[in-house]
Amino acid sequence: MDLARILHTGAGSLIWRYYAAAERHSSPELGDYRSYGLYAEYKSASGWEPAGCVHDVTADYNTALYMAELFTGRQLSGVHLRDAVDDML
Q1: Comparing C-alpha atoms, which of 77, 88, 85 is closest to residue 10?
Q2: pTM value?
């Protein structure tokens, strides 16, 4: 994962990072279950800021971790997170 890669935009330089986090859910069909969501942050002049999340992406931690590392390494813009998750699954 190369967090030093910088994405240049008209507003200045941003660095994107993603992480996977465990979540607990409940549904009438499945009962209580654990899954993993993906969370995006970007580095602004004042520090790391939340940029969005997608909940309940996968039940497999390794898949969520792979996606977070891939998105960080490729410096995926947070506005594309949901589309990228949909495309990968």
Answers
A1: 77
A2: 0.78
Q: Identify which of 56, 48, 58 has the alpha carbon closest to the alpha carbon of residue 18.
A: 48
Give the domain ranges of the chain: 7-88
Q: Which two three-digit tokens encode residue 75?
A: 């410096």
pLDDT digits 0-9 by tens, 24-34: 999 999 999 99
Tell me how far apart the terminal alpha carbons of the chain are, to the nearest angstrom.
Answer: 21
What is the SS3 assignment for 13-49? EECEEEEEEEEEEEECCCEEEEEEEEEEEEEECCEEE
Exposure on the CB side of residue 57, measured as CA atoms within 13 A: 28
User: Encoding tokens for residue 25?
Assistant: 């859910």
